[in-house]
Amino acid sequence: MKGSEAIVKTLIGSGVHTTFGFPGGAVIPLFDEFLRFEGKIKNILVRHEQGAAHAADGYARASGKPGICIATSGPGATNLVTGIMTAYMDSSPIIAFGGQVSMSLIGNDAFQEADMMGITLPITKHSFQIKKANDVVPTILKAFRISAEGRPGPVYIDLPKDCQVGEVTKEAPKKVDIPSFKPVYRGNINQIKKAADMILAAERPVVIAGGGTIIANAAKEVTVLMDTFMIPTATTIMGKGIIPEDHPLAIGQVGMHGRKAANYAVINADLVMAVGCRFSDRITGNTSSYAEKAKVIHIDIDAAEIGKNIEVDVPIVGDSKSVLSDLIVVMNEKLKKKTETEWSKRMKELNQLCRCNMDSKKEPIEPKKLLFELNRILKTDDIVVTGVGQHQMFATHFIDRMKPRTFITSGGAGTMGFGLPAAMGAKVAVPDTNVFDIDGDGSFLMNIQELATLKEENIKVIPVVFNNSYLGMVRQWLEIYYSKRYSQVKLGRHSDFVKIAEAFGLGGIRVEKPAKIQDALKESIRSKETMVLDVYVEPESNILPMLPPGGHLKEAFGGCMNAKGVFF
Prior knowledge:
single chain, six-stranded parallel β-sheet, 568 residues, 23 helices, Rossmann fold
């Protein structure tokens, strides 16, 4: 068989039933094979290659399985780069295929030639170039292993025409061994025992659960640790949903736009245990003064992350689920259940103070009111995807999620335009679940062309656009740090998202009154196809608290009015 047939057969054999791609001359042989395997595998024809990469990413985050995207050579492949980098920063398993000119033309500046091996080197776990058809199967099998095992991430595969049109003459392997790739899953038991002693001796412990806990499917273990030993538990933006957010000890997101209760816990803790979290600058602020009163336990499957940003007292390399499971066993041997402490009581009280009064009747619509109405109708299994900007931070702060993989966002890269295509990918992964795209007008416009894909492929998502006529997050920074010198942030009200939706053959609803939000949300859910909600929100609303870049966590300012009218 031809190499192109081997590619498709290997994808099918690896459990792939959907890819996201855009054709071109260098991948015609590959796309031709999709016709022959109709019914076994389907390519969703996106309208831009960046949309393909984000859709594959959304698919991967919702399902836990690698998402697949395909583009042609040159600009087709380079259009995947933003999506690949987004997946890399958030440890999302995708496999990106890019066409390439024939081997004889590589290095000659041929038509639509791009050095994708060089371009993708810093933003992938690994990059392959398949030079001959016999290497197709083993390379793709390796890509699946590398992408999904250990700390997940993107793998790029360069496909010169030679490997697609050439004949496979060797028997394909059933599995492959990668001698240099041996992720460590079990933590060192002596380190785990040290951690157990430190936690049980601590008076003011706090857990920070990051995205690695969701990747490891460690929701049960994180919740048991919190419940059994009365440990206040915060999350990063990537860890949102790992624990039920209505739990009295679930103290919310930490960091720049984190809840005051969560940041208070880190500032005053005598022990911080970070699990599947890389201590990014958006979490820590000034690293020299971070957790200055606390000892630090750091659990991560990637040894390179431990000690990289924050000095650690007890490092444990391993899979979050495995390490926490062993840790709980050791702690149970020493103490079956910890009674409520003054610290846990205090954190419960602060947690309640951080539960803001969101039911605002003000006009224009306040963003938190929109999220208040969304919270009323969200089901436990519904998936919320976001774009990037103010709306994203409002969503992380005010939307409650109870299960992992039900909140999907671009954390490390902060990629505007992520929301709509990622929501599309998530819906393909979990077709029987409502998928909401919480987006901003600036972010939504960046990949708005995927509305055409949603219409053509009959994929239903629910875009809810925070239309404030600004690039909201940049505007907020300019208001606070640049004396309201608004440079290049005003978008205006010229983008009529209802009319744009109608131009793509879809429906849309404009919402300008708080009283109309609930009806519009319900109508969009009842609709049989994608319906865009264009919600006019207060143009100069700010998402607070906010930590000055590089500042100490205690310097976070602002907050919100709680139900008792107290500004906290």
